[in-house]
Amino acid sequence: MGKNINRRDFLKLFGMGSMASAAVLAGCKGGKKHSVGDEYKSQVNPPKGKMTCRLNPKQGDKVSLLGYGMMRLPATTGKAMREKGDEIDQEMVNRLVDYAIEHGVNYFDTSPAYCQGLSEKSTGIALKRHKRNEFFIATKLSNFNEATWSREESIKMYKNSFKELQVDYIDYYLLHAIGMGGMANLEGRYINNGLLDFLVEERKAGRIRNLGFSYHGDIEVFDHLLSQHDQYQWDFVQIELNYLDWDFANEINSRNTDARYLYAELQKRGIPAVIMEPLLGGRLSNVPQYIATEMKTRNPERSVASWAFRYAGTPEGVLTVLSGMTYMEHLKDNLMSYCPLKPLDEQEMRWLDDNIAKKLVDLQTIPCNDCKYCMPCPYGIDIPGLFVHYNKCKNEGTLPLKSMGEDYARLRRNYLIGLDRSVPRLRQADHCIGCGQCEAHCPQNIRIPRELHKISEFVEQLKQGDLYRSPDERRV
Questions:
Q1: pLDDT surpassing 70 at residue 191
Q2: What is the CA 38 to chain-centroid distance, rounded?
């Protein structure tokens, strides 16, 4: 597939072929040890009128490099929407959208599947308060359930998006998460029912301005759709790109494809890339303390998250980088990364690729992005909550192992108490029966029942006090 690209080709792909090798940023010597929890305490307000924009070559749209992903909207509980029954905090959504638009953000990405089906409506309410020419709306045909594969049901979902968003045209429309389920899934959702041909006609009629797809999973499907570019004329494609997935997506999970290849294939055809998961669901902002300290030493003025955003925004073929921003401090920090963007230089790229990414791969955390596509579990298990708690302890070095000696008893107690506080006992991993319903919906291709079984065994051994190895040490 042409995955082997040398450093010179890499720089050419990223649009940095003419960049001179810059000196490594001077590190601060001494000073306070950085804490990830202190990231936003001295936060300054981002400047207005400085947003970096990219040009859509076909439509001429000037699209903000920062796109607002309406997937992790705030709930009235004060956190991101998580459970069925949570209510969206519409007042806070309005405030976030207003602030984003005021600072140059004009791309808003949603789906009928986000936030328990409430994201499109909430997005429509927030954006309706602004002039239509101030924003671009992206949404998707999220017909994952076979009950929605028929032409009638899929068109019904498509038309409902206009109603929920309160618009008469959609700027960027996507076939949602192609690749999951392989070619058979693609054919059932979009080909056999004539939906793709229908959407092409809708684009001709002007109700869709740009047509594309988002990709997760089987590379055969990605390659097939790109091979049909002459027929369908894809206006954009949404891929996962970050400094971990650039070279290590396949190493982390053999069912995934490195972003290096995905981006190169789009560049060959002149197709703009929309980037999702620049932070991997927050994993690249909540890195282990020693890595965070290394990043802050290299550039004390920037947050840990900003390294990932600058990496994702540096390639010239990127149209916009999506971020699901639940809190105002996250929005402000991301705005600082792109108002304006200071592209990474060759040395910074090499440092992230050859140093930081490799250290994160070696951690062997569960590659969960907390997207909640696996939810709801028919047996009530809080799958992402369990993975997030385990990864957090792994990153912080507080995973209890017998080899820790005197610290083991304290860390064992803290892990179990923290687990019960994060996830109610009736929703923990020991209630998984291995039905596998969740696995088919995971964009990261995680073997979810297997990982839940390992966590369940891990927790049971902690309770019995006889643990000698962590779950990743028993990986098969």
A1: yes
A2: 23
